[in-house]
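Supplementary notes for students who missed Thursday's class. We covered one full example, reproduced here. Read the sequence, then the structure, then the short commentary at the end.
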Amino acid sequence: MIATCPIREGASRRPDAEALAFAGRSWTYRALDVEIGRWVAALQARGITAGDRVALLSANHPACVFLFFALGRLGAVLAPLNARLTKAELAPLVEDVAPRLRLALSSLADHLPGAEPLETWADAVKTPAPTCEPLAESTARVVLFTSGTTGRPKGAVLTEGNFRASARCSEANLGTHPAPRWLGTLPLFHVGGLAMLTRCAYDGGCLLLHDRFDPEAVNRAIDTEGATHASFVATTLERVLDTRRDLPLPESFRLALIGGGPVPAPLLARARAARLLALQTYGLTEACSQVTTERPTEADGRTAGPALPGLEVRIVGPEGALLGAGREGDIELRGPTVMAGYLHRPEATREAFRDGWLRTRDVGMLDERGRLTVLSRRTDLIVRGGENLYPMEIETVLAAHPAVQEVAVVGVADARWGEVPVAFMVLRAGHAMPGDLDGWCRHSLAGFKVPARFLSLDALPRNAMGKVERTVLRSSIVSLSGGGGDP
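Structure (token representation):
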């Protein structure tokens, strides 16, 4: 199947419909088509062609939208980088991407050496280019980095077909809407943010883009700007309800997708009392966002729902044997939303698949109705406010401290963030607990990865094989209510 830019299609079919809004400005499909054309011309002037990769470091900004669709019209690939990472964390990702061009918001430029300013990059171009190459479903559109529990982050390559299928499968579950208006508070360097952007474009809707999550701005968009859909994690959902003091939402708001882990039952009850239909979901970067989602007419908050129409999910044992309802095992999936593979990582790509099924390495079970319960978001993974944290990355930084002999990082339940990382350390002989551990971590890690607590032990608990028993460490702390500070 061959497709063309959905913004060009929208400019032809509904030119005056609103396509994008940001900070008091808005663009119709016609105006957005022209703006994207200017960016196409600017990219062509720099020699960007099909297959080239462009690295982007930015918070949410309209220029990110212009760039994404402009690259699509050329068959080029966007590599959006997490704007919360440090310069040291970004360096190996950029090396993997080997971009022809680097762009960054001016405030982030020092984190991406060689980057040109995103905000003004195409200002000198006045005449839009008409170029709009047709795209095969297999055409790569983005490289999004995602980490396993070990090793260097891997760049998942998502295609035009992946994004179109994700939008199609989601609409089949949620129902059609004549003009959806999605609240764009998720960052466009995450798969969830890009899925919202593309979903709006394919469905003829409007993305209400925000540069960051602000509960007051979210509620204004819901109450006065006609927002119909949103995506939250449990912490942001709670902040929205707190800010509006549980005032019922207008009927124009249809529903919110909730990711980043299970939502506490009392919070779901609160949302429903405020007439906010919150649907729990399970997804991952390698599957272009959603995999399972509760059905709007059957949502009870007990599971992450069944597979989206058009996708398949199964539970298997360690050797790949299919497990029945109620049996715990590895979550695997297949369907048109599954990535093409990992950039420059053929061995990792092969390991990610089993007989055509994507091996998520998450653990869960299906009930008799095919609804998924996720039991573990990958071995040892910590999910903090929707952000995935990997213990080994944090442990590597702490282990380099001169006072630390051994360290193990685990996730502990937290009332505000869902989970926060806690570091258990064995100190070297003659050393007291260092007072600079927080600053030591922040030098190399983004703030949301810094442990909420640093605890000293005489020895780390280990099993007969010599592996650290993280469950023992985790059970030593019941909860860090309200801890963790700002990410």
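Commentary. Residues 2-374 form a domain with the Rossmann fold fold (CATH 3.40.50.12780). The first strand starts at residue 2 and ends at 3. If anything here is unclear, bring it to office hours.
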